[in-house]
Design brief:
By secondary structure, the protein is α+β, with helices and mostly antiparallel strands. The protein has three helices and eight strands, in the order βαββββαβαββ. The protein has one domain: 60s Ribosomal Protein L30, Chain: A (2-Layer Sandwich).
Amino acid sequence: MREAIIPAGMEIFHSHYHFAPAVRANGLLFLSGQIGLINIETPTLADGLTAQIDSALQNIGRVLEAAGRDYSSVVEINSFHVGPLGDHMPLFVEALAKFFDEPYPAWTSFEVSGLAFPGALVEVKAIALA
């Protein structure tokens, strides 16, 4: 059985773009990638890389909360970075320490040429215990 998780304010993802911010299935919660949007209804990105990283991770938190979970339930994250990965890594590692406690989730990062939303610099997806 699968259950779509659609937090308040994120309905546009489901209705217009045809994906769920998360899906609960077989004891796991699969979170779609979140970018550094600070306003989803009228899509507005946070200003700058550090702010986009924080906003993306906060948006992950919104999805987790809608599913009745928190950051401690996350077992894996994948991050996608536009621009030199070496420039992003120190900022992302610093942000991870603000949102996650030990034991930290598994993490893989990718340098990419672009993301679906123009101007987005980072996207984060996750898998959590449901």
